[in-house]
Structures are given as C-alpha cells and as structure tokens.
Write a structure and sequence with these properties.
The protein is of the alpha+beta class and 355 residues long. Helices cover 27% and strands 23% of the residues. The longest helix has 18 residues.
Length: 355
C-alpha cells in the first residue's frame, strides 16, 4: 500500500477519499466506520484555488467556503460572511548569527545580521502592529516569542516600536550613516540584507515588504525578494520569512539546538550556537518529570530571546468566506495556519442551518 497511500490513503478518520487529483481536487465522503460523530454531508469536494483567483471564486457563488488572503477578505461578497480564525503559527525571520560563508555550494550566514546589535535593534525598534496592519490588513496579533498557548512557553513579551532606543543601540555599536543615504554602515559594510518570502504565500511576502518599510527609520535597508519555495529552500540559511508553529517543543529544539545545524530544511536556519541553550534543551529532553522539563524549555527560550536568532513578527489569522447557512463550530485556541487547511479538522461537525 505504500506506493498508493499518497493518492488513496487508508485511515480511521472521519472521512474516506473518493477521488484525488493532485493540484486540482480532493473528493471526500464520510467514513461509515468512524467511531466519532459522522458528518451529515454525503460528499465534500475540496478544490485547489490560487490566491489570485480565490476572491473571484467566492464571488462566483458556486463555492460554500473559500480561503482568501486578509486583503481580499475586506471585499463584500453577496450571500457570504467573513470568518477570521486566529492561529498559533508565527511569521518569523531567521537572522543568521554567523557571517556569510559558502557551504556545499550554498550561501550560509549574513554579514549584517551576524552583528547582535542589528538583531537587537530590529527586535525592539520595529512596530509589529503596524506591520500586521500593512501586510495582513490587521488580521493577526504581534508575536514576541514562541507559541504563548504552549504550557512549556516562556510567554516572553516586551514593548516594541522603541525607535530612538534602537537607533542609539546601533550608534553605540558603530553602525552610522556617514554618507547621508539613510542606510547605516560599519567597517565598510552597509546595514542592508535581503529577506526571501514565498511567491505562493502572499501574506509572508507582504510581511517582508512591510518589515522593510518599518525598518527604514532605524537606518536598516531590507530588500524583499519573492521566490518559489523550491528556490527559497536553497536560501534557507540566509534571512527568510518562515511560518513556524511551536506547539511541540521538539520544533524549538530543531530550530535552536546547535546539533541541528545543516540538518533538514527548517532546522536551525540561523546557524545558532549557544552551549547554555543546548544544555537546557538537553536537560528538558532527558527529564522524566513534565514540570521539570517545562522549566528547562522556558529557561532555553529566555536565553534564545536575548540573542534574537529569529525575529518573530506576528501570529497571522486565517480568513475565509463562508456561505450564508453553513455553520462551522468554534475551534479551540490551537489552530495552525497550514496554508488555510486547518479549518477542515472538525468538518464532520459542520452543518447547514435549518431554513
């Protein structure tokens, strides 16, 4: 069955696959053997719709639920209402802590973000709410640390938009605008770097564009670059906009433990090394007491936040058009972004309101 599982999965969930055409559609029917609540629908068809066509699809009146970007959700669509779902995913920019070098033919590190003063200035100097307003039409909340819903999270927070304090920090570290072009430099290096955003994820790319505009008053020039994910993967150890979900502390381990440098795609994209962080993570992993492990995870997070290998910006919300009469029960507090697919997790509980 392993050769066909991707097209004809076998499982014990609420649904079974009737038909699947990659990059086109997925047709589901209720699984008559499912142990839990069975859907009242006989069949569900899920269509893949590109972001630029999503709004038109909603206006067509032929679809009951459409995932759209936050900007599109501001448009009124007849017989549909907008559903906004907060998520626990964070939009984050990895800020490599090592100078630029080449490994296995790929560029790793960055000559600007490797200076902790740059990372600290961005962290306290940017206005996260303004970035959310400009990039996500206000659909999101500021992010300062790993998922605050997780019991092992430090829930670290602070006041951002401290522009003058950030500028002084840069001045004291030797980053000065000596030629009056609005961009600081130090030892012949301009305070400018490129951040890659996914071309098929407008919210992430827009976040990079808004961040670039927000960083200008600090004298830091960020260049937003749109790339297909296949190309963005190759540049993952240079500044990139990620969508991270940290409900499992193992994700934190993969992002920040030094043993993960050079491993899989998302592992330690900042090339971050800190022996004290490694020790806390190792202690958490080896602990046989849950509360003790939480304490070590929190200690590790507090240490990481001082070094800022990752600039957390927002917890983006998901936005959908929902046809009048379709009732979708409320979700809990741990919705993951997943390119919008998370909404179907309780699809067996959906109903049509009685006329």
């Amino acid at each position: 069955y392993t050769d066909t599982y991707g097209d004809k999965p076998i499982g014990s969930g609420a649904w079974k696959v009737l038909d699947f055409k990659k990059d086109q559609q997925l047709i589901l029917a209720p699984n008559e053997y499912y142990y839990g609540k069975k859907s009242s629908f006989k069949k569900i068809t899920i269509l893949k719709v590109d972001e630029d066509a999503a709004l038109a699809s909603a206006k067509s009146g032929q679809l009951d639920l459409v995932y759209v970007d936050a900007e599109s959700s501001k448009t009124k669509v007849d017989h549909m209402t907008v559903l906004t779902m907060p998520t626990v995913d964070s939009f984050s920019i990895n800020l490599p802590v090592i100078p630029e070098t080449t490994e296995d033919g790929q560029i790793v590190g960055n000559n600007v973000t490797s200076d902790i003063a740059i990372r600290q200035a961005l962290n306290i100097g940017i206005n996260r709410q303004a970035i959310i307003d400009n990039a996500l039409s206000g659909c999101g909340t500021p992010a300062f640390s790993t998922s605050p819903e997780a019991p092992w999270s430090s829930k670290y927070t602070f006041q951002d938009n401290r522009v003058e304090e950030a500028k002084k920090l840069l001045e004291d570290a030797g980053w000065k605008d000596t030629d009056g072009d609005g961009i600081r430099e130090k030892n012949g290096v301009k305070a400018e770097f490129t951040v890659t955003g996914r071309s098929n994820d407008l919210a992430r790319y827009n976040t990079v564009v808004a961040l670039a505009e927000n960083a200008k008053p600090l004298g830091i020039h960020i260049i937003a670059k749109s790339e297909a994910w296949a190309e963005a993967r190759k540049a993952r150890h240079t500044p990139t906009c990620w969508s991270f979900v940290d409900l499992n502390p193992i994700d934190f381990y993969r992002q920040f433990h030094s043993s993960q440098i050079g491993k899989q795609v998302i592992n330690n994209p900042s090339s971050y090394r800190n022996a004290a962080v490694d020790a806390e993570i190792d202690a958490a992993l080896s602990s046989n007491n849950r509360e003790d492990s939480y304490r070590h995870w929190i200690n590790a997070q507090d240490l990481v936040e001082k070094d800022i290998p990752s600039l957390r910006i927002s917890f983006p919300s998901l936005t959908y058009y929902v046809k009048d009469g379709l009732h979708i029960p409320e979700y809990g507090k741990t919705i993951t972004r997943g390119q919008g697919i998370s909404i179907i997790e309780n699809m067996n509980e959906w109903t049509w309101d009685s006329k």
